[in-house]
């Protein structure tokens, strides 16, 4: 049996293919329904509708190509076809490259369109369809050019096991495109934040005007910008996850077993899920904007309220809705001590690895003492971070939800957030250097005559690899959490808006990364146990004479 049929024949892999195909099919139906809603409802601006329809067409193109890949894989399995000429896979490659690139470029086009709307409001209203048509043509051209750029050095004549693989010569260009779209998503994210803030300022100014028309137009523009901002956030997170997954699978592929690699590649690929969420958010935003628009029209045409009535209602709202922040003390302690403790324990593990490398013999003699010292230091450091942030705050503020911190603590919390963010990145770099040093040491010990030293070197390397993967998850968590924090604090001050509730409830990444943290520890322990048994069996069964040892040394130095 060929390798392809052997790795794809297990029931678990085929079940994963069925689940993935079902998700893709449902996503296509949802995207088609979203296009129907956009074409039949004119509740958002014309150019924004054009961009959203084009983005959904890119989504459908991508999902259809991946669905065809899943079907083609099933056909290969049941017809027992081991290889395929990669030129037959062009439809999938086009859907993957053009679809992903198109979604990135359409986000930039929507941001530029928003900037034009804010800068040249009167002219924009007069020629509103032309910017949309121009940027649609430009986006299509750049998306097709991206595909041509990636495969320009490849004749597409080599054989491949599955159409999920890119041509060998195209990986360099594909990596360049991936880095470019990743940085483009970051720039676009910050641009959208600025545009959203400007739209909020403009809407606040127009709210004071007597003209109902101008107030209504300002609110409509703000809702369109908020919709774009939400979709841009999803696209940004998708780029982070996809880029991280690509480089994990590329550079750490040897650390994954065949079944694990396939499950990550089939079910862990984030783009189908974010594309589905993209369509769902568009449908939800359309319904929400429609309802708010009806409420605004009704409010603007029937509102008769004096300033005294308004102030009395506002006071009643504060009495009913707000709670004293002192009641939220347990949640605040769990948030601050838990998050800072996770960052500090990563640093402690890295320091422990460094001590193990520098003082190998003494470490084996006193190996429990460094762990105890680091544990006590980490606990003290986490509690100190909480004390530093809270300080002498009296906990007398009133907040709408316990996710808020006391008002006076925000500057210190921001400082700690910046510090832990850069600490995590620095720690990841240090872990990479430690992993490299352990690999060199394990390679050196592999040819030594002492079985014990070879076993210890292999065990140390596996332990460092596990720490490296957990550290990578911690860095991704810090990046996501920092981005989310600054979005909420500086650009979504309205605690009752949909974006705030959605991001604060489902978008908070720490529960997901903490769960992944525990799962990775369990997986690493099981994997290290199995590898340790295999190593022991290999070393005990291996019979090596002194002449064999000398011959291995000579071949290593040759």
UniProtKB/TrEMBL annotation:
Q: A cellular component term (GO) from this record? A: membrane
Which protein family is it in? Belongs to the nematode receptor-like protein sra family.
Q: Where does the protein end up?
A: Membrane
Kindly indicate whether the keyword Ribosomal protein belongs to this entry.
no
Q: What is the originating organism of this protein?
A: Caenorhabditis angaria
Q: Name one GO molecular function term.
A: olfactory receptor activity
What this protein is called in its record is Uncharacterized protein
Q: Which InterPro entries match?
A: 7TM_GPCR_serpentine_rcpt_Sra, Nematode_rcpt-like_serp_alpha
Q: Which UniProt keywords apply?
A: Membrane, Transmembrane, Transmembrane helix
Membrane topology of this protein? Multi-pass membrane protein
Q: Which PANTHER family match?
A: SERPENTINE RECEPTOR CLASS ALPHA-1-RELATED (PTHR31357:SF5), SERPENTINE RECEPTOR CLASS ALPHA-10 (PTHR31357)
Which residue spans traverse the membrane? 15-38, 50-71, 133-152, 180-198, 233-253, 259-283, 369-389, 416-435, 466-492, 498-523
Extract the Pfam families matched here: 7TM_GPCR_Sra (PF02117)
């Amino acid at each position: 049996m060929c390798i392809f049929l052997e790795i794809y024949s297990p029931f678990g892999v085929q079940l994963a293919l069925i689940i993935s195909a079902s998700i893709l099919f449902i996503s296509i139906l949802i995207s088609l329904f979203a296009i129907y809603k956009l074409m039949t409802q004119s509740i958002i601006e014309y150019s924004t509708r054009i961009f959203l329809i084009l983005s959904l067409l890119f989504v459908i193109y991508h999902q259809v190509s991946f669905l065809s890949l899943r079907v083609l894989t099933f056909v290969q399995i049941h017809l027992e076809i081991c290889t395929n000429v990669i030129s037959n896979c062009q439809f999938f490659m086009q859907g993957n490259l053009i679809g992903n690139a198109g979604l990135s470029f359409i986000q930039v086009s929507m941001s530029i369109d928003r900037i034009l709307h804010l800068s040249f409001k009167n002219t924009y209203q007069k020629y509103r369809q032309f910017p949309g048509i121009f940027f649609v043509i430009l986006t299509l051209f750049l998306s097709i050019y991206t595909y041509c750029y990636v495969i320009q050095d490849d004749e597409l004549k080599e054989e491949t096991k599955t159409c999920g693989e890119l041509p060998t010569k195209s990986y360099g260009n594909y990596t360049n495109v991936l880095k470019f779209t990743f940085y483009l998503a970051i720039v676009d994210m910050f641009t959208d934040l600025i545009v959203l803030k400007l739209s909020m300022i403009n809407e606040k100014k127009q709210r004071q005007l007597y003209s109902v028309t101008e107030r209504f137009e300002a609110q409509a523009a703000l809702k369109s910008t908020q919709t774009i901002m939400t979709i841009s956030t999803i696209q940004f997170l998708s780029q982070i996850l996809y880029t991280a997954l690509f480089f994990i699978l590329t550079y750490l592929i040897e650390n994954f077993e065949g079944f694990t690699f396939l499950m990550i590649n089939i079910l862990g690929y984030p783009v189908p899920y974010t594309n589905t969420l993209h369509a769902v958010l568009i449908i939800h935003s359309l319904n929400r904007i429609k309802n708010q628009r009806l409420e605004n029209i009704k409010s603007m045409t029937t509102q008769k309220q004096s300033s005294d009535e308004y102030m009395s209602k506002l006071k009643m709202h504060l009495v009913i809705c707000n709670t004293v922040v002192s009641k939220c003390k347990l949640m605040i302690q769990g948030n601050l001590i838990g998050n800072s403790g996770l960052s500090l324990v990563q640093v402690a593990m890295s320091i422990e690895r460094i001590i193990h490398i520098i003082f190998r013999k003494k470490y084996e003699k006193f190996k429990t003492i460094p762990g105890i010292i680091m544990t006590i230091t980490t606990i003290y450091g986490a509690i100190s971070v909480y004390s530093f942030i809270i300080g002498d705050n009296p906990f007398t503020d009133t907040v709408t939800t316990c996710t808020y911190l006391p008002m006076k603590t925000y500057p210190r919390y921001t400082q700690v957030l910046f510090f832990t963010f850069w600490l995590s990145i620095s720690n990841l770099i240090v872990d990479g250097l430690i992993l490299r040093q352990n690999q060199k040491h394990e390679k050196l010990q592999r040819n030594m005559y002492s079985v014990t030293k070879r076993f210890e070197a292999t065990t140390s390397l596996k332990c460092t690899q596990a720490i490296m993967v957990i550290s990578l998850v911690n860095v991704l968590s810090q990046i996501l959490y920092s981005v989310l924090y600054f979005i909420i604090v500086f650009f979504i001050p309205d605690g009752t808006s949909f974006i705030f509730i959605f991001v604060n409830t489902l978008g908070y990444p720490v529960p997901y990364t903490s769960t992944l943290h525990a799962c990775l520890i369990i997986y690493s322990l099981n994997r290290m146990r199995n590898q340790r048994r295999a190593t022991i069996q290999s070393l005990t069964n291996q019979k090596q004479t002194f002449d064999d040892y000398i011959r291995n040394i000579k071949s290593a130095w040759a």
